[in-house]
Amino acid sequence: MKGLLKIALKLLANDRGKFFTLILGVTFAVFLMNQMTSMFAGIMRKSTSNVINIGAKMWVMDPSVKNDRSSIPMPDYVLDYVRSIKGVAMAVPIYFGSGLVKLPDGTYQGANIIGLDDTTLFGRPPIIKGDLNKIYNSDAFIGVVDSDYRRLGSPDIGSVLSINDHRAVIVALAKPASGGLFGTPTLYTTYTRATQYLPRTRYSMSYILLNPKNDSDIPYIQEQVKKLGYKALTQKQFEKTIKNFYKYKTGVGTNIMIMTLISFIVGLSIAGQTFYAFVLENLEKFGALKAIGAKKYELMTMILFQASVTSFIGYGFGIMISSLMIAISKVRIPNYAAVVTYQNMLIAFLMVVVIAGFSSYIGIRKVLKIEPFDVFRG
Amino acid sequence: MKTILEAKNIVKYFGSDESKTYALKGVNLTAYYGEVLYIVGPSGSGKTTLLSIISGILRPNEGTVTVKDKNIWQMKDDDLADFRLNHIGFVFQDYHLFPKLTTTENVSIPLFLKRQNWDKSLKEAKYYLEVMGLGSKADLPVYKLSGGEQQRVAIARAVVSKPDILIFDEPTASLDGETGRQIIAFVKEHLLTKERTIIIVTHDSRIFEFANRILHMEDGKLKQTTDNSNHLDEQKTITKLETQ
């Protein structure tokens, strides 16, 4: 069979024009599919950055909350109630808000302000420079050095900023696990200071961060929180809620899915049509092979092999080009959301398998139909 | 004379009911080892249909075809394909070579179908190309060869698997008269052995002189058999080429 496969490969590769068109079609489709799904994966990952960075096992919130950025403030008694639930090891408040930072050049930049529990500082990001304890100094803030930090002029330790016309001093710099989705820089401070610096509503507590004593306590805690009319989600559940919001409520998911589908159809059409033309051109030769003594499965294997080789070369090029594009884009645009994951590559691979299968199918159908007698008849 | 192929009462029709058209109406044919057998007749006389049936390509509606004492139409499809691969060599009217493959690769195809390894197959193919006088063109793609050369590549492909029966369908149809004659003369001189028969379908009377027997067909029936050679044993055969 090795000889036949080699012949199949030569038949394909020696017809350079068609071979190139086939590879180009698949490459283009894979490039687009991978680009789209990578964009989607990046958006999904960044959309949950706060939840990932803070790292609490459970989050308590108003039942209407659909994503971390649209928190509904809760009264303080909810915190007391949560702390009293059996199985809760620790529960602390956290404040999410946004302030207006006045930059040295006189311009303004919006920033996310996260107020951590004054006592525990639970949910703080890993400090890479400076002293965390200085957070208790007056006007102290921690700067989060992600791709958006440059929007604040990348202030170093000791830099003085103005947040909502309040003096703010950077006392430490932190590196988060994941950057945010909206290109807004983030500053951490204590819960009390955050509520002093930012305009308040009647209640100020955005979420309650909670760690259960054991994972087995989670269902009971959720049940008890629900009795009070609130919602307790595990980190994974909250991430899923946020992702679902972006997927289904914002159109991001639908648009990307449509684009991925279009890329797939384009690839399928180009590869399918070119491969069909290739098989059609060699149809009589395949008929002659049949007459000589080639069996159906041998011809099918040859065609499947040709389609697979083309598709997988195209797949390799497509992944390579899209990864390169994403890497270049990330250098040029630090907050570029796309990220190539194994899942993206797997999706593109599965789609390529479908393209190879479809292309083979239409070729094989034609080849199996031709009778050697037709070759004699001319 | 020893029989290699025997077809009895072959009936073949196409279509059904009112549109049924008979291509063969009870044809009997016997081919012997060591002869060149021509099947001739006007277009539509059933030559190609008969050729397809005796070579295991087209199933007859009635009748039997026995090759080397085996009824080929009792075989399953895959066995029939193996039978064709091992016992029959085809030279098609339009050659049906792969133009983008080299001549050697084209000739090797039957050997690859026999699962012979790549290098050995190419070596054997090159030998047959040498025999056909195309040794210097072994590495050229087929599309760069002339019609006559392509014909010879097709012949090399047909004989590379050492078949018992060589079948030619209108071998001179695409060639000029002289080239056609040269090729058939060459085939008879170099490829006909005592262990092989060559069956040629043609209406080119210029090459009739190379036949041992000529079967004349008309309207799906065998009309006449002409014995063209009384001295089969006198034929010049060069068997050493294939035994080396």
UniProtKB/TrEMBL annotation, chain A:
It is found in: Cell membrane. It is a multi-pass membrane protein. Pfam families: FtsX (PF02687), MacB_PCD (PF12704). It comes from the Bacteria. The chain crosses the membrane at residues 20-43, 256-279, 299-328, 340-364. Residues 258-372 form the ABC3 transporter permease C-terminal domain. Residues 20-227 form the MacB-like periplasmic core domain. One of its GO terms (cellular component) is plasma membrane. Coiled coil: none annotated. Keywords: Cell membrane, Membrane, Transmembrane, Transmembrane helix, Transport. Its main location: membrane. This is ABC transporter permease.
Automatic annotation (TrEMBL), chain B:
The keyword Transport applies. One of its GO terms (cellular component) is membrane protein complex. Residues 224-244 are annotated as: Disordered. The keyword ATP-binding applies. It comes from Desulfurella acetivorans. Belongs to the ABC transporter superfamily. Macrolide exporter (TC 3.A.1.122) family. This is ABC transporter ATP-binding protein. Keywords: ATP-binding, Nucleotide-binding, Transport. One of its GO terms (molecular function) is transmembrane transporter activity. PANTHER family: ABC TRANSPORTER ABCH.1, IMPORT ATP-BINDING PROTEIN. Residues 5-244 form the ABC transporter domain.
